[in-house]
TrEMBL record:
The keyword Lyase applies. It comes from Rhizobium freirei PRF 81. GO terms for biological process: D-xylose metabolic process; UDP-D-xylose biosynthetic process. This is UDP-glucuronate decarboxylase. It is an enzyme of class 4 (lyase). Residues 47-343 form the NAD(P)-binding domain. The lineage of its organism: Bacteria, Pseudomonadati, Pseudomonadota, Alphaproteobacteria, Hyphomicrobiales. SUPFAM superfamilies: NAD(P)-binding Rossmann-fold domains.
């Protein structure tokens, strides 16, 4: 380890300790930070950027259950403290409040980059910051991976394909994306991130993994994230009208969160050279109106379906071709939509009856 790295490491350790003290004082919750002390900085952990979010927190769960040491990094732009509270029992879990737009340095062996708002209302709220997170954030984590020769995972997206003219979408389809619209900050940001990952692999030999994630759902989704399943469930449970954009004939494919996380683990653990994007999602295809009707039936709601104008650049159809994941990873989803919806509805039922003071938000 060179002197410059030691200096940066010491500075970051001091910063992370301060961040942990700040969190403890703000929320009254102590985040174990045994992995971030000067005595054991040689121990190489797994870094999960965006670890307080929906997918990130489930990934932290899985990695900790598998016996890994995990450092969660999140700036709470959309992540929630409540998603991490149950992880405090692990001595191998640490948390740092940090925005990956700023560089960071930790001795890690693997990096998962899940740090970016993923729902339209959230990524459109500050499109410049969304683009910075995709580009500057990826650049900072790739430089960290280069420094420590760490394998790095990019959570890319089916939005790479835009409003596709090929169906289902294979990885070699280049997409139909508007570079000058309200969704462009996310779509083009993720495309740019993939380019950076590819170039770091070619130029610096960084061991990269890229997953193109299709619609995913499950417990810990935010009730206000604006995605179709969370919207429909919350509206149904409240007895409100179910808002369908367009006539509801557009199609989506829905993957349950535990299936997706299994795909992450298999992709990251694969020892062959999978340095190109891999689709991860459930190839089952449903119309949005069918989904709304199923959720109304499962919740016993009196909600009615109402139609609203289709948002700009909203894709008409979305379904993954997962041939590569089946062939290279032996992976395919196993949780049927009805089963996944049952547990997701139960989660939202619990969330909606909790006082706001119990929902640990950070601003």
């Amino acid at each position: 380890m060179n002197a410059s790295y030691k200096d940066r490491s010491s500075v970051f350790l001091a910063c992370s300790a301060a961040c942990l003290d700040f969190r403890e004082g703000l929320m009254g919750i102590v985040f174990k930070s045994a992995s971030i002390t000067p005595k054991n900085t040689q121990k190489r952990a797994i870094l999960v950027a965006g670890g307080a979010g929906f997918l990130g927190s489930h990934l932290c769960d899985r990695l900790l259950q598998d016996g890994h040491e995990v450092i969660c990094v999140d700036d709470f732009s959309t992540g929630r403290m409540d998603n991490l509270r149950h992880l405090l029992r692990y001595d191998t879990f640490s948390f740092i409040r940090h925005d990956i737009i700023a560089s960071l340095d930790l001795p890690v062996s693997e990096i998962y980059n899940l740090a970016c708002p993923a729902s339209p209302p959230h990524y459109q709220a500050d499109p410049i910051h969304t683009m910075k997170t995709c580009v500057f954030g990826s650049l900072n984590l790739l430089e960290l991976a280069t420094l420590h020769q760490a394998r790095i995972f990019q959570a890319s997206t089916s939005e790479i394909y835009g409003d596709p003219q090929v169906h289902p979408q294979p990885e070699n389809y280049w997409g139909n994306v508007n570079s000058f619209g309200p969704r462009s900050c996310y779509d083009e940001g993720k495309r740019s991130a993939e380019t950076l990952f590819r170039d770091f692999h070619v130029q610096h030999g960084v061991d990269i993994r890229i997953a193109r994630i299709f619609n995913t759902y499950g417990p810990r989704m935010r009730p206000d994230d604006g995605r179709v399943i969370s919207n429909f469930i919350v509206q149904a449970l409240k007895g409100e009208d179910i808002t369908v954009y367009g006539d509801g004939s557009q199609t989506r494919s829905f993957c349950y969160v535990t299936d997706l996380i299994e795909g992450f683990i298999r992709l990251m653990g694969n020892q062959t050279s999978i340095h190109t994007p891999v689709n991860l999602g459930n190839p089952g295809e449903f119309t949005v109106r069918d989904l709304a009707e199923q959720i109304i039936a499962m919740t016993g709601s009196s909600s009615k379906i109402v139609e609203r104008p289709l948002p700009i650049d909203d894709p008409r159809q979305r379904r993954p071709d997962i041939s590569s994941a089946k062939r290279e990873l032996g992976w395919e989803p196993s949780v049927p939509l009805a089963e996944g919806l049952k547990s997701t509805i139960a989660y939202f039922e619990r969330q909606l009856v909790r006082p706001n003071s119990e929902l640990l938000e950070v601003v």
